[in-house]
Amino acid sequence: MVLPDFDAVNLESKRLLDAGLETVVFQTPPQSNDHFEASGRFIALHTGHFESMCRHLLGDSAAMEALRGLDADLLFLDVAFPCGQAISELLGKRVVLFSPVDIVDPFWSRFGRLPYSPAVHAALGSGLVHPMTWRERATNALLSPLMFWLGSSVARASAQRIARDFGLPGAGDPRDAFRGSRLLLVNAADGLVGPLLVGGEPKPLPADLAAILEGAGPRGAVYVSFGTTFRPSSCDVVRGLAAALSALNRTVIWGLNPARLPAACPLDVSILPASIHIMEWVPQADLLGHAQIKTFLSHAGVNSIYEAPYRGKPLVCMPLAADQFDGCAKAVKGGWGLQFKKEELSPATAHRLTARLEQASAEGSPLAQRAAVVGAMLKAHSRPALELAADWVEYALALPQDADLSDPAMAMPMWKRYCLDVYAAAAAAVVAVLGSATLVLRAGGRMVWRWLTAGRRSHGKTE
After folding, report:
1. What is the mean pLDDT of each run of 10 residues along the chain (463 residues)?
2. Do 57 and 249 touch, CB atoms closer than 8 A?
3. Which of 157, 153, 170, 275 is nearest to 224 (CA)?
4. Which of 278, 308, 360, 415 sees the fewest Cβ atoms within 10 Å?
5. Does the domain at residues 207-378 carry the CATH identifier 3.30.420.40?
6. Of 252, 177, 249, residue with least CA distance to 241
7. Contact 283, 213 (CB under 8 A)
8. CA-to-CA dists, residue 135 to 125, 323, 339, angstroms
9. CA–CA separation, 188 and 174 (whole Å)
């Protein structure tokens, strides 16, 4: 596994790095993580961040020497990290792409030659979800090409700079990364928005967390987390959250590091009620699997939107940026989520958020029932998804080097893929036949008319 230094430190602190996993860590400039968190809403800044990471990886001689020393049969690359294409060219290895999130449209569908329809697949950040109304389809049909043009232009320019500066002519087009890969594994269930690779029974919780849940009583607990990069843009959000959670008649486990809040918006933990337990980090998937957790208040980030329905928990979501609006919309339309808009939250409106949390947490609530149904569907696979993914990787390894598993139809231009030229030729033939028949009928009609009029004139002269 290749990791930037700040990610390695973060994962090690949370005990998420497997001791048996060989890891290559490369050095990054100071405050790289802060730069990444600040760029959440802007495609160009995201691309600039990833380009910077790629340059530091390719320029880290120790990390690259370690990579070249690996006797790998296949590279397992994150589809969102563009440096994977450069690494695959340098090492000359076969590639399997993996997406830890749902397909980000329209980018990955268009790049990866995957079936894509703007009537079904919503553009990133649009907040739309299938089934769409006519107006929503019209909006998405206009938005998708603009999003694709913007994202692909920025990504291609970044890839070309990397290819030029490091002498990698084959790494200049992001589309080649998809075309040259054996497989694209996506951690999602289309239509359900659930995990395929995350699964299994929840692990035992840490003793302090287990004790809190045991003391929560029959009303259970609400879990709150807005991700590790939570940066509220308004003090009203922080104060509104504190007021809403304080008013709950339930135990609250709030995943938050108060020290990372803006200096202008400090949170005085000492004035919060004893029912609110603030923890810098919790094992989220395992916590959501606990019976005492009744509802999850989240920004609808990638992990949150996957893990909540998998564990059968309703979601109250307050999206902050990008694909979080899409995930929240799917939860709401799927019947297992409620949305609360960030811009509407303040101490004066906190009671509305409290009411939604109580609504979702109520015993036997429709939201909880629907979440349980979705969770059962996500778990209905005959084999664990991790084993299924491993089988596909083994299959890709066993194939000859020139084998192509992609759908050839998706490599064709749209007019050829849907046989529009054939339909056009057929339509032209029909028009030609109808036109010819019309001309023949008109000519025949004129002849008959002339014959009839000639007969009348002849009859008149005879009389």
Report:
1. 69 65 68 40 64 88 87 81 81 80 65 73 80 88 80 81 85 70 72 50 87 92 84 79 92 87 76 90 89 94 84 92 84 92 90 95 93 87 80 86 74 82 95 93 86 68 54
2. no
3. 275
4. 415
5. no
6. 252
7. no
8. 17, 20, 21
9. 22
